[in-house]
Amino acid sequence: MDLTEVTKRSKDIRELYHALEEKYHGSHWTTEEDALAFLTDAALVGRLVMDKEGRWPKTSDDKLALKIGESVWWLAILADETGLSLDECVSLFLKEKEAQLRK
What we know:
Protein name: MazG-like protein
Distance between the termini: 31 Å
Oligomer: single chain
Number of domains: 1
């Protein structure tokens, strides 16, 4: 799956969540709240990796793949909400790191 498709599908799912937020809370989350939700999921990725490597108490479910996917989903949403392209963000990062490390 390419990043353009990731972004489109992510936005579609986010709109469904916005509808639930409106229904239950009268408003949808702000970009700042989305960023905090991403940080929570990113922290869970860290814990689940430690679990997988035997460095954290074992959980009952292996949700590492799901949480990594959710973190990418949040990044697609945050890029879109801030007027950026996920594809361009990733491309820029890779280009800069490759140039930096190949000096």
